[in-house]
Design goal:
Blueprint lengths: L1 H22 L16 E5 L4 E4 L10 E3 L2 E3 L2 H6 L1 H7 L26 E3 L1
């Protein structure tokens, strides 16, 4: 009986891991920025850009697109380069009409954070 339990635990673990791997693959993100001013990043699903999540950085909370930091969303939206990207087919953010994306907040909402 112990052998059966071990096999079932192994199968269950494998299925769980495969399920978790698939969970984050619905949305594509841009490559992680390589910038010495910020070492931790969070993907902004709405705007399709990285945001500096490095509390020790002067750029904490700033959006990052095209090699530039934007202090406010308003500044980001004023960028002609960003707006061209946002209106293009290569835009990696979510759109209001995209009903396949379910948004949630709070613990376990699936927000990705990367960095050291």
């Amino acid at each position: 009986m112990d052998k059966t339990k071990k096999v079932m635990a192994g199968i269950s673990s494998t299925v769980l891991m495969l399920g978790l791997v698939g969970c984050g693959s619905e949305l594509e993100t841009a490559p992680l920025p390589e910038d010495s001013y910020c070492t931790e990043w969070e993907w902004d699903y709405d705007d399709g850009v990285w945001e500096c999540d490095d509390f020790d950085s002067h750029y904490y909370g700033h959006s990052y697109y095209g090699g530039r930091y934007f202090k406010t969303k308003s500044d980001l939206y004023k960028s002609k380069d960003y707006m061209a990207y946002k209106n293009s087919s290569s835009f990696l953010g979510s759109s209001v009409t995209d009903s396949s994306i379910k948004k949630s907040s709070g613990f376990g909402s699936g927000v990705k954070s990367f960095g050291g």
